[in-house]
Amino acid sequence: MAYELFSRRGVRDVGVNELIERSGVAKATFYRHFPSKDALVLAFLEQRDQVWTVDAIVGQAKLRGTTPTEQLLAIFDVFGDWFLRDDFEACSFINILLEMGPAHPLGQASIDYLARIRGHVQALAEQAGLDRPEDFARSWHILMKGSIVSATEGDTQAAKRAQQMASWLIEHHRS
Amino acid sequence: MAYELFSRRGVRDVGVNELIERSGVAKATFYRHFPSKDALVLAFLEQRDQVWTVDAIVGQAKLRGTTPTEQLLAIFDVFGDWFLRDDFEACSFINILLEMGPAHPLGQASIDYLARIRGHVQALAEQAGLDRPEDFARSWHILMKGSIVSATEGDTQAAKRAQQMASWLIEHHRS
DNA sequence: AGCGAGTAAGACCGGTCTGTCTGCACCTTG
DNA sequence: CAAGGTGCAGACAGACCGGTCTTACTCGCT
Question: What is the number of domains present in chain A?
Answer without folding.
Answer: 1
